[in-house]
Structures
1.
Amino acid sequence: MPFYALGVNLAKQVGGQTGFNSLLDDDELDLVLKGFDETIRGTGVQDETKVLTTYGMTLNKILQERSNKLVTRVKEEGEEFIKGFLDCNDDAIQTESGLVYYCMKEGDGAQPTVANTVEVHYVSRTRFHLWNSSF
């Protein structure tokens, strides 16, 4: 089981950062895993450097295009969420920077100072970030 953990770690380092599950279909992911398996085992029949130089630029272009589409979709979904939230919450405020906030319960006690410790409850939604590399 420790070596399974190594596989999990590698997958998290590579697949988790790039969001491959959002960018590749099952057949494409199978090819990625086949390339990984053959390369790590040394059983590949193709020259690794030639494969990278032949297909690296094309792969990078495909992944960049898909990443851009995904980022655009997530951004649009976020904008729809914000619009819906603002429509449903008359007291919600959107700042010039795009931050939206809604005070659910305003305090009525003394104002805190720099020396005070305060407790704040909030929900944060951020835009999607996708790591990308080139060959």
2.
Amino acid sequence: MRLEFHPEAELELIEAAERYELQVPGLGERFGTEVRHATDLLLEHPGLGHPLDPDLRGLVLNRFPFTLIYSTSPEVLSIVVVAHQSRRPGYWRARLDRE
């Protein structure tokens, strides 16, 4: 199984890491490491996250207030959203309609 990020999810990841890095040097790198650890875990156990609807699941990160929202197929784990938990729920739904 390979890992893919929706372009907007990738941007959310980069922007969050940059914000953390500005707050505390090294914190952005730790955020990236946490996301990599979570995606590695999902590649091994794609059913781990909680179901959001028939096609999407969510996994809350352990050390940061973010949820990875993803879909799976036999070949691909697709990260659709890297959502900060204070954001308006479902703000990302429109990006699914554009795929």
3.
Amino acid sequence: MTPVIAVLGAKGLGLLFLWLASASAAQWLSDRKGYGERPGLATGLLLSAVGVIIWLLWPAKAASKWKLQGPIPRRGGGGGGETVAQARAHGVGDDET
């Protein structure tokens, strides 16, 4: 009897990569919106591509990277905009708990 090694197949491998990519994207979105990485990772792992859509529609916190720097960050970090730490030092988003 020969051991079966390659049972997954191309379709299964593609779905696995889609699942992992959507979990990574949901984690990145939730971190940019100010909720941390863990809620996004859990949403992406449990709901797959639907988790990304949820985090795209979820509102961002006031002192988040999404609100201060925009949805897509500038490359190189030298954008001239205010950083999250500077905004918190000025009191932006203090009313949220």
4.
Amino acid sequence: MLEKLKMNNFLVVGRAGLDLYADPPGTEIENATGFSAALGGSAANIAVAITRQGGKASLFTAVSDDAVGRYTRKALAAYGVDTNYVRRVGGEARNSLAVVETRSTNCQSVIYRNDAADFHVTEADSSSIDYTPFGAAVVTGTSLAQEPSRKATFKAMQLARAAGLVLIIDIDYRPYSWASREQAQQICSQAAEMCDFIVANDEEFAVLAGAQGGLNYAEELAQSKDCIVVYKMGERGCTTFANGNRFDTSVFKVQALKPTGAGDGFMGGFLAGLAAGASLPDAARRGAATAAIVVTRLGCAPAMPDASQVQSFMQDRER
């Protein structure tokens, strides 16, 4: 399975949108004197993190057929993300929009997802993808929250599996996108059952478990379906379960500007490490380093470091 990742070519499924950051940094949204624009959205951020560290990534999503959608596609292409599977949708659908603060504590993030364009991908879109060049498909759970995106995502996962791709899911639970927590549990559990890698934080594993606290469930999941499970704990690092073993990865201590983008950076760095042939512990450490750099910089996609920056950061910290 890990050998397949060395193809270093990833299909990423999920949202891409516009982020507006309150200016100047440190300002609350309600007191902002202006806003700076950047590419955002969890799937887009992961794809950018991969390309910044030398990998190839194609995004499977939909954007609005308007100026904001054109901005999003142009920004993805500028980061080297392939947009062949980014479809434009008309009508009233609009791109996902996040209005965010650059603050290390009490950081507000207001996300607009009403009839989001990325929910309009279809099974026909999934069937139009050529899966053969990819080593893995990375699914973000938000794409499962509504139809027709849900059916399209499951279709893409089925076709990716049939083509021999490794399946990876970031549960990426956003309560406002789902009809209920119970629905999220049912759908995300079904998707996780199909995957070789499951990455989530405590709340997200609790959603899968249908109970409070997900660490025990994460370990049980890794054992019961013989997959690799990464249990993220924010500033306490992460625990990885694989092949009957577990190991802990600590965070790198930094002076954070904001918390946003850390999870996406971790995923991108982790996958870039595995694609480069790193062991699971070394790849997790690379993911942690990527996340640490991201929280010290403005934005999410713009904050993703390249491979040399990650390597220098890790070497400096080890010294």
